[in-house]
Specification:
Order of helices and strands: EEEEEE
Shape: elongated
Strand content: 25-35%
Helix content: under 10%
Largest sheet: 2 strands, antiparallel
Distance between the termini: 22 Å
Length: 78
Amino acid sequence: MMHAEGPTVCHRGEQIGLRLLLLNNEPYEMFVVLTLHASPEYKFVHVEEGGIVTSYGARLSGGDHQHLVYVSACIENV
């Protein structure tokens, strides 16, 4: 299951962040490929080592971005 949060509107040139919650209800761990699709309407801001982003000189890129995410198994208490 996935839940996504983000702003409903933004202004041109504004940087926004999205929050995703991935839940695994299965009794086994899994890897999930998360794909952020390209669009001519936006670019991706790269967060550098240590979580640093320079607002006036941020590194931007376009195209599809894929991330491999580990999701642990559901631990059920009976």
